Amino acid sequence: MKELSVLPDGYPEIMRVYGDPLSAGFIHDQIAAFELPFPLKASWNTAVVYRWMNMHRYVGDVVVDALREMMEYRGLEYLQENAYDVTGGCFNIRKKTGGDRLSTHSWGIAIDMVPQLGLFGKKSYVPDFIVAAFERRGFVWGGRWKLPDGMHFQACKNY
Ligand SMILES: [Zn+2]
Fold it and tell me: Would you state the pLDDT for residue 153?
């Protein structure tokens, strides 16, 4: 099993470990395309199918490994029949929802899974086996926050 080797704590450590998303060269130096173990559908248009995903170079392998565990759990057909193969995306330089700070998606260190089951601010219905696949590898799950973000898994804490 692949696990996160570091879990930066707070903004300064995130910047030190993962780099500055707004700096020149960030994408070139820090972001890489990772081949996915099964195709993920985009939540905003399920006709869009990802076979590769741009993620931070320290994190992509671990996301891929978590997805592989999801697939091995009950098979790809099961994931597809239940729309557990839907993603809200990973790397995206933007502000946090309702905030001024950079979203963790800006570093390519967060992925949104089955957003239809884990809407921001709402009770999460994201299945336990998906949460477990990411948490056992060190990801922080937004579904445990006071203001829940059930779709959201990130490779840092306290930010
Ligand atoms: Zn997210």
Answer: 98
